[in-house]
Design goal:
Layout (H helix, E strand, L loop, with lengths): L6 H24 L4 H23 L13 H31 L4 H7 L1 H21 L1 H21 L6 H13 L2 H12 L6 H38 L8 H9 L1 H11 L2 H34 L14
Helix pairs in contact: 1-2, 1-9, 3-4, 3-6, 3-7, 3-8, 3-9, 3-12, 5-6, 5-7, 5-8, 6-7, 6-8, 6-12, 9-10, 9-12, 10-11, 11-12
């Protein structure tokens, strides 16, 4: 039986996610004392809990969340969302760094980020055959670990970070795409055939959710680190008024606009340095998140699990 469309459930899921993402970005922007952001976080979380309970209580729900009772299925979903979490965040921050700090055009920045995409194209097809040799669990955890090393490379690279180090980070990130391919295989193998539609919907949702959370969480962390550094150092730049200092704290592109309008090259140099520091610190946080995720997700997969079987 095909899933039943649930308009109220869909509205709740969208509302809950919007409130959750808004609260995360607002807390990063306005600080942890913003009451409205905390209210939105509680409301969004409560709505999502209601949506989950609704799906679990229906005989033919829009999303069959009972599939998460399968540990390999859960591992596959988490691996897919975690990899997209990392990929989206790193590409976002890399694009900003290339265009504003390095002065690349949008086309040049796109070309400069091709190493990550090309390595994904190579690693993904090789992952299933590698999983049959050394095991799905090893490829899954190893892939996420390699992705984490991409973030660690950014943190450990000498300052100011060069494009060469970014290429190394992108290659490591792309090499971890094997976890995405094996995760997809785990999702299929851990799902009964009659529920394949539900599994596909949850897999696609995990991709989008991982991407959104990656941009919202790691992007917000980078912005908060940048803002904190600029709020301390920008007032020392000669010739800047309080409004211009505030504007330069909001984003790297805003600082670029202020620097050009008042002819303050020192401000742009400070903004570039602050963003690079924020990028490096975010790399460390990304590495810790990926390392913990790799350990947790790996523990969900049996040691000798066969990804070619159709369900448990």
């Amino acid at each position: 039986m095909p899933p039943r469309w649930d308009a109220l459930g869909a509205l709740a899921a969208i509302t809950g996610m919007l409130a959750l993402i808004w609260s995360i970005t607002t807390l990063a922007d306005r600080g942890l004392t913003d009451v409205r952001a905390w209210i939105a976080l509680v409301v969004g979380g409560s709505v999502l809990v209601w949506f989950i309970r609704r799906c679990l209580s229906q005989s033919n729900p829009m999303l069959d969340l009972t599939l998460f009772r399968s540990r390999p299925f859960t591992a596959g979903i988490l691996a897919a969302s975690t990899f997209m979490f990392a990929m989206s965040a790193l590409l976002l921050l890399s694009a900003q760094w290339l265009q504003i700090v390095e002065g690349a055009s949008p086309l040049e920045a796109g070309v400069a980020m091709l190493p990550a995409v090309l390595v994904v194209g190579v690693a993904s097809p090789l992952a299933p055959s590698l999983a049959t040799r050394i095991g799905a669990r090893a490829v899954l955890g190893g892939g996420l670990g390699i992705t984490g090393l991409g973030f660690l490379t950014i943190y450990l690279a000498p300052e100011p970070i060069s494009y060469g180090w970014m290429v190394v980070a992108m290659i490591l990130l792309g090499s971890g795409a094997g976890s995405l391919a094996v995760g997809s295989a785990l999702i299929i193998s851990g799902t009964p055939q009659e529920k394949a539609g539900h599994a596909a919907a949850l897999e696609e949702t995990s991709y989008e959710l991982g991407s959104v959370l990656g941009v919202a969480i790691l992007g917000s962390i980078a912005a908060a680190i940048y803002r904190s550094r600029m709020s301390t150092l920008a007032p020392r730049v000669a010739g800047l008024g309080s409004d211009q200092v505030w504007a330069s704290e909001q984003s790297l592109s805003a600082a670029e606009g202020v620097a050009r309008s008042v002819d303050a090259p020192g401000l742009m140099s400070l903004a570039n340095s602050s963003f690079t520091t924020a990028l490096a610190d975010t790399g460390l946080i990304g590495f810790v998140v990926l390392a913990l995720a790799a350990v947790g997700i790996t523990s969900l997969v049996p040691k000798r699990y066969d990804v070619t079987r159709a369900g448990e």
